[in-house]
Amino acid sequence: MKQPEIICINKKLRLRRTKEEDWKKALNWYQNPKVLYYSEGVTTKVYSMEVIKRMYKHLSNIGELYFIEVFENEDWKAIGDVTLSEKNMPIVIGEERYWGKGIGKKVISKLINRAKDIKLKKIYIPSIYKYNERSRNLFESLGFVKVAGNEKEDSYELRL
Questions:
Q1: What strand order describes the sheet that includes 122-129?
Q2: Where's the N-acetyltransferase domain (predicted)?
Q3: Pairing outcome for strands 153-159 and 75-84
Q4: Which conformational region is residue 59 in: left (phi greater than 0), alpha (psi within -120 to 50 degrees), or beta?
Q5: Quick check: 77 and 16 in contact, CB under 8 A?
Q6: Whose CA is closest to 59, among 7, 101, 109, 3?
Q7: CB-count burial class (<10 Å; 0-12, 13-18, 19+) for 6
Q8: What top-level class would CATH report for the domain 6-159?
Q9: Could you give the 3-state DSSP secondary structure of residue 77?
Q10: What integer pLDDT is reported at residue 37 of this predicted model?
Q11: Residue 52 and residue 109: Cα distance in Å, rounded?
């Protein structure tokens, strides 16, 4: 099944397929040490555009990469990214002012439905840091179960 250009979640929230020329919008997110701490466990550096390009190319190759967009001031604004793949489902809300507003839950819920539509059998999350309670709670609240772990991180899976 072909990846859609737009997945509407509601009137103010959607997912939009990314294009390489749009990827520069993510630079500010991956320059934020808090974003990198929660998503990558990195505390000593920020991502360059070259690192973002490599990451997005990889994510595009393993699944469907989208920007998370909100409708604000009569226009759509990218605030994060998410990928749907059997191998991983990374999500980043890159704009801090949108943290804790339930956007992640709406996005992941919509992509779980998409995964069912395209006949994925499962979604595997290889790594969520133990200190990242928000992500752990998000995925657990949507039915993901812990399938492995170590002292630093846990892996989750959702059977569809």
A1: 122-129, 153-159, 145-149
A2: 13-160
A3: unpaired
A4: alpha
A5: no
A6: 3
A7: exposed
A8: alpha beta
A9: strand
A10: 87
A11: 25
Task: Note down pLDDT in tens along the chain; length 160 residues.
Answer: 799 999 999 999 999 999 999 999 999 999 998 988 888 887 778 899 999 999 999 999 999 999 999 999 999 999 999 999 999 999 999 999 999 999 999 999 999 999 999 999 999 999 999 999 999 999 999 999 999 999 999 999 999 9
CA distance 65 to 7: 12
- Return the amino acid letter for 23: W
Domain range list for the chain = 6-159
Q: What is the pTM of this model?
A: 0.93
Tokens of 20: 């390489």
